[in-house]
Structure formats: C-alpha cells, structure tokens
C-alpha cells in the first residue's frame, strides 16, 4: 500500500469548524448535556435559545481576531429567570494555540463591557495534544491582578476505552459528533477511518431515530470524516447494502445526503469556471446519479438503463420529485406520471 493510501487525503483541507458550528446550533442542549451537564441543569430550556451571531461578530471585529474558529455566543435563561450569555469556544486547530487562554479572556471582558450581561465562557479542545489543557488566564503588575477561570473539556480524554464506551452507549445525539471528531483527528490510516465511519453511521441507525434526525447526523458525520474518493465510494456502497439488508425505513439515506454533495461540487465547479452553468450541472448530475442507483436497486439494472436517457436529461426539480416518488412506487411508470 502506498503512502498516499495509508494516510488521510490532505489535499482537501479538513473543515472541522463548519460542522462544529452547525452541530452547536442544531444540538445545543444535547451538547451541554453531554459535555457540561452541571451547566445544562441550570438552564430553563422552556425559554428557548438565542444564537447571537451578530453580537459575537462585533466582538470578534473589535478584538481584531483574524483566524477562524467554531465559536458561538448563545443567549439562554437560568432556572431563576436570569438571562445569561454562554460563550462557547471550540478549538479545532491541528496544533495547540499559546494565546488561547488570552483570547478567552478578551472575548469574555468585551462581552461584559459591551452588553452588561452575565457571561460563562466554556472551552472544548478538539486537538490531539494531550498536554494542551488551558483552564485559566491571569495577568498581574504591581499588585494589580486579573484572572479568568473557565471550564474546559478535552475531547481526547474520551478516547480512553471507558470514556469511549460511555459515548457508544449514550442516547445523546451529540456523542456521535464527538466520536466523529475524535476519529477524524486521530485515525491516520484511511482504511481504518473508513471502517470507523461505517461503524458510527451504523451506530446512528441502530439508535432508531427519526429519518430527519438520521439525515442531519449523517451529514455532520460525513462532513467531519472525509475519505479519498475511491474509499468514499466503497463506504457508500457498503452502507447502502447494509440499509437494504436491515430493511431500514429510510433506504437511500446515502443518496439523499449525496444530493447536497452534488450541489456543493456543482457550486465549486461554477466558481472555478466563473460560470453559473457549472452549478446547475453539478446539481443535475448528482441527482441523476442518485436516481439511477435507486432504480437499479429497486427495479433492476435493466430498468435503470431503460430510463437512463430520460433521467440524465431531466431538470433538477424534476429529478427531486422522481426521487421522492420512487420510495413508494410499485412500477417505474408510476414515477413519471
């Protein structure tokens, strides 16, 4: 096996910030319940959650921070009715950052100063260096002293056998996000990474969650764990076979998630070529490929070939409608009418 196949594909930069930002917005209560349970218990969740992106971006601009982070500022209500802001720092860079604690302090005091609200700063360290564990910032001069102590969770600790078993046994959906992050950061052999990706997706299926939640979690895990193109194709084929064998109520989960991948590829192609046509072509090709695979699985390869020309020439909107109809269709003809 060559070196290229033994390690993850570094040509496509791993984007850990974006899936973390989305995961925090989609599953914020679950995030706190898993990683900061004592704080979760203090919040009145019936009052809702407010993501303060505009306010946080103002703080970032004032702090002159140029690097990108999966940081979130969230407004919640305590059990006693007090409105508080929770500042979540997720450090997902490849290497520890010496200025991390100072950045925690800078954001904390800027929020306090600008908005005059109680603030809790929480840190999630998703790097692979076990020695990097900042928990406080302090500065002093001639008897003047400032300090900030902040709760920190080191995801690397969950890689220990007992902690990992806790994640696998947890009914908290955010446990899957944490496991995907750990495997993406720590697994260097891509064959092993493919195996882990399949195992995590299968674990997600076995939880018996509703289809919408399954698709959302699938997309996040797929986003975090990136595989070289050939291995990604193998993974998706294996997963599709598993879905069929288990008679899952949401067969074609892989294909549904693949629609977004086709869209993203089309967008990237359009940007590179400077043509809007590339975007539409990417959408159409992605959805046509998905529908043809659905046909082959449900009605046989010959049926897929019979309708290939019609499918490949259809518009994206029509393909999307056909992809929904095939789930309940008894014959190919009922899909197109």
Automatic annotation (TrEMBL):
Lineage, top-rank taxon, reads Bacteria
The protein's name is: Cytosolic protein
Species: Thiorhodococcus minor
Starting at the broadest rank, the lineage of the source organism is: Bacteria, Pseudomonadati, Pseudomonadota, Gammaproteobacteria, Chromatiales
């Amino acid at each position: 096996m060559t070196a290229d196949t033994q390690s993850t594909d570094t040509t496509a930069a791993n984007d850990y910030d974006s899936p973390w930002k989305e995961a925090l917005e989609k599953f914020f209560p679950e995030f706190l319940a898993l990683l900061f349970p004592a704080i979760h218990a203090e919040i009145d969740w019936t009052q809702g959650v407010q993501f303060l992106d505009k306010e946080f971006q103002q703080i970032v601009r004032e702090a002159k921070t140029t690097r990108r982070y999966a940081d979130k500022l969230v407004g919640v209500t305590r059990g006693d009715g007090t409105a508080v802001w929770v500042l979540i720092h997720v450090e997902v860079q490849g290497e520890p950052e010496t200025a991390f604690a100072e950045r925690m302090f800078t954001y904390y005091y800027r929020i306090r100063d600008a908005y005059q609200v109680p603030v809790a700063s929480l840190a999630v360290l998703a790097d692979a260096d076990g020695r990097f564990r900042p928990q406080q910032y302090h500065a002093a001069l001639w008897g003047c002293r400032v300090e900030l102590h902040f709760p920190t969770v080191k995801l690397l600790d969950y890689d220990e056998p007992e902690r990992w078993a806790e994640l696998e046994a947890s009914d908290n959906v955010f446990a899957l996000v944490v496991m995907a992050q750990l495997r993406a950061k720590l697994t260097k052999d891509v064959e092993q990474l493919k195996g882990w990706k399949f195992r995590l997706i299968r674990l997600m299926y076995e939880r018996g969650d509703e289809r919408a939640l399954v698709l959302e979690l699938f997309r996040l895990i797929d986003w975090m764990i990136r595989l070289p193109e050939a291995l990604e194709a193998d993974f998706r084929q294996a997963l599709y076979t598993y879905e069929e064998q288990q008679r899952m109520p949401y067969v074609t989960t892989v294909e549904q998630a693949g629609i977004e991948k086709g869209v993203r590829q089309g967008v990237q192609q359009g940007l590179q070529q400077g043509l809007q046509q590339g975007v539409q072509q990417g959408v159409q090709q992605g959805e046509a490929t998905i529908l043809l695979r659905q046909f082959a699985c449900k009605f046989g390869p010959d049926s897929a070939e019979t309708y290939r020309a019609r499918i490949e020439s259809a518009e994206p909107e029509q393909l999307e409608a056909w992809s929904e109809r095939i789930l309940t269709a008894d014959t190919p003809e009922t899909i197109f009418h």
